[in-house]
């Protein structure tokens, strides 16, 4: 899906924005960048802001017109911050990503971003099948060009299902404690809390309920139970020595 | 919800990024920006890149430490591009937005972004209850700072616009502990664990990190922190008596 989607920038004024767009694309695994009549390209500013996404810049295609840029695409989505007087079929970035998730498997698609200050012209929108609008503060609705590309690319990436492994951070995570281990832990806790004089075992019901709520919520691992019981043991030791 | 969420930037090197962050925030109706030890601020570069979000910059709070920045927050989310060896409860931007949609109605929340090149340090992550990671190309995973803020703010904005239902299980739930309360709790714990002979304060680092992980995961309420500190006090009392 992502390899069938190109990002098209129309008459970008600031080369720095082109570089930042390349970085945003590469972050989200998009590769095809097309520049329609950029003011200045290639340019050191673009390379600097690309921060390592030079490959996107060096393979970028430069065209004279939007028509040429989207010629091979079946689905062309134009982006706009403004409400247009002509009503266009509108998509949010998420709707667009969901649409392309199925459509961009067999078809080439383009998402077109206009000029920094004036967006796309009506004759350019005529080439677009859909209008994409990023939900935002209606009193301050102009996103930076690269920021807009970032949001749209992010939605495409999430929809593509190439999500990072959610479990990465959990690697090496220990086994969760069993119910039996938890019960033994709570028994130990009652004993220790009584030993340190925090409560009488007979009157422990409501306190223990509150403590159970905390530790059950924490979903303890076996090793963590061992750690906590080590602490309980030490607190008891002092009592017994005391 | 959005008015209870602050964006915290830690030791930002490039003032231009601060401006771009302010713009991204204003686009998405976020207002509270906190800067922890920025290299240069205020700065003309920041104002230029803010492109009209000057109000966010002029009301931005500058702090010396992350601890100070998040002291009044009950929910602190750290962002990271790297996989950490210690497993932290991880959220995607969408999961984070869904969480804050309910939690940030009654509680202040902070989303913390680290340095451009090195992110957040481990002692800063210790202050965070969750780790947020933006799904992206695993071979090119470092987003520009403002681009990362844009993605997260966008998800928050989208979530804020939807109808929410407070889940039944959360009704009548007490207030979550603030970061300052949690830190005081951990300080007290170090003291108590040393008093009962469980560990030396100097050697407490890795044990405390494991304990923090447990209690951060449990998302303690203020009253629960009081309960646990009551237990700590009693365990100390016995030592001192002993």
TrEMBL record, chains A, B:
Keywords recorded for this protein, A-Z: Cytoplasm, Methyltransferase, S-adenosyl-L-methionine, Transferase, tRNA processing
A GO BP entry: tRNA nucleoside ribose methylation
EC number: 2.1.1.200
Complex and partners: Homodimer.
PANTHER family for the chain: TRNA (CYTIDINE_URIDINE-2'-O-)-METHYLTRANSFERASE TRMJ, TRNA/RRNA METHYLTRANSFERASE
Function as written in the Swiss-Prot or TrEMBL entry: Catalyzes the formation of 2'O-methylated cytidine (Cm32) or 2'O-methylated uridine (Um32) at position 32 in tRNA.
Entry protein name: tRNA (cytidine/uridine-2'-O-)-methyltransferase TrmJ
